[in-house]
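Long-time lurker, finally posting.

We've been working with Peptidase M14 carboxypeptidase A (Natronococcus jeotgali DSM 18795) and I want a structural starting point before designing mutants. I don't trust myself to interpret raw outputs, so I'm hoping someone here can both generate the structure tokens and explain anything notable. Sequence follows.
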Amino acid sequence: MGLAVSGRVAAQDCQDDFIKPGGPFVPETATINYNAFTSNEELYETLEKLDSRSGLEYESIGETWQGRDIPYVRAGDGDPDVFYITQQHGDEQHVTEAALRLLQGLASGGRRSDEILDELTLHVVPRLNPDGWAPADDNETPTRANARPEDVCHDGPYFGSDQCGPVDPNRQHYFGIDSATLADADGIDPDVIPDENPSPETQALLDKADEVGADIITDWHHQFTYRNEDCEMINASTLWPLNEAAPDEAVALSRQISAYAYQQTKGYGHTTWDRYPGGTTANIARNAHGVRGRGSVLFEFRGQASQLGNASNGRLVTVINNVMTEVLEGLASGDLYDVDPADADSLPPRGDYFWKELPRSEWGPEHEAYRE
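Top reply, 14 upvotes:
Generated this for you. Predicted structure of Peptidase M14 carboxypeptidase A:
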């Protein structure tokens, strides 16, 4: 995503290796490691403690391909029902640390927490894809996809026939949407929709969201490093449903959430925003839940596992936690609903992909595109 195209800005006047702040970046000679992050075992133990010592309710909503529990936490008893989903991609870890900090704060109680939980019900899936993260527990590189075995295959409407092995959980959210709607909106052949979702992780989320009548789904991810035309590092991006089958009301609510998050946090330290350039198809979570009539928002933050490892952990978790908290407070107070959906258009355009150690002349396709 490094070259300037329509809807993006290029840091034309920035030196190739200049960005502010100037990092942190992992030195070329350093070993990427993940020992500062919560392991799967630690995650389950932490959630069990929160369940036993507070009003938060923890349970497993299903199992991964490798038999790991898919964790789910419920807090509050108000309206609306709001989902926070982290780590659909196993190599996007800071969002889970921020979600844990959020849950621990809510469990501690106090006026601020009580006001939120009186007015809404929060549903958190902190690490939808524990199989993808599992290698990091042994300090190996975690994976974006799930752990479906290589000899398990399916034909699908979005990526063709003979799809074998691991799949991206964030590309399997179309299951349960009316096939005629998918055919009209995305031009797919409904006859090739598989009988079973190749991502049991995604299906567990879809089932739980339907069970509780989810009103809002927010999907928390990570991306590589970008900079804007002022050479500033971009730490946060957002986008709403773009599929033509998403009802206007759902899109408007989604745009309000994106705009409110931007307006409330753009003045915070290390919280420079842009608009994420996402796709339109209904297999992507952001679009699929919009098509279902829900508020549906993507949040992306700097911090791809293979690029940063433990570097910048504290800073990024704070940035993400601030956004998570502000959105909840805006929903609980009602202030978020006063935002004009058109305000989402004030988000700065997409920045320029910043590859610190590689001159632009040497960029390849893998440096130009990284999708939600």
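Before you design anything, note these points.
The CA atoms of residues 81 and 121 lie 5 Å apart.
Confidence is low (pLDDT under 50) at residues 1-6.
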